[in-house]
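Morning. Coffee machine broken again, so started the prediction first thing and wrote up yesterday's gels while waiting. Chain of 286 residues, entered below exactly as on the submission form.
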Amino acid sequence: MNTEKAFINRVKQNVGRNRRWSAWVMCASIGALFSTSVLAATECPKVPVKDLGYPATPAWIPEHIFKSLGQPIINGKDNQGKPVHYPARGSTNLVNVFPPVVDHDFPTPTGELMLKDAKFWVRAQNRIFKVPHAVTGMYHCKMVAKRKDGAPGRATANLYTDAIVVNHDTHKFQGDQNVMESSVTDLVYTATCKGAGFSWERKPDEKFEWESKWENGVPSIEMLDNCHWIHNVAFWTPPDDNPNDKFKDPAVLRPTSAESANPKKSVPHDNPDNLPWKRKADSNNQ
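Came back before lunch.
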């Protein structure tokens, strides 16, 4: 059984790993691309090289996210026509939500790729919740690379993206020369991610629901090689145990005076969620 599960997980990890670089980045980066002799000399096959490993796919931790939601008060079934806001006021940070990835292999590039030539970015195309909907938030990820052979030196990259607005910024590593001029296949990376300034909203008639599909991970770290293939480096997935089974809507329904006077028209218990309890890049890589 464990063997079958491991095989299924490997198949899932292989889905959508490689894609072609998008046209908008090709245009924006063409000057930088052709200014390097490395890219000019790279011979690129028509199909990508098969990855020797798999992206890192740790699961985000719902317990810590749930605590960050607070316990908003719903004033009447329709919340007086206002959206339900999580947390009740302001925003919250997602701390200790995304487990670190430690000493993981980089994806296998198509063609030669030194770390100094690779581009990285964070995607936030998916969401932690289906409902409520994120209205503010940023993802920040830090990557640290080092050589597999234990040679001294390291390089770092700081990545970020808005959780709502698509961000097309790419980033490069900076650091010691012996690491920067190493092939990514001779390196391992450690990655840490966190969320900052998050808030969510839902309409009063919408039902609270976590994302539960494995393939809809967020955030996702991606890499571009010299042959314009995009690789999934790491992405944080929903946990295997569906969080919808354990973590219900923390918002508390407070009936209005009219609803309290006429309980037949007030149904706070009808909804238990109200109780406190390698691919080719297309036209847009995001």
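The chain has six helices and 16 strands. Going to sketch it on the whiteboard this afternoon.
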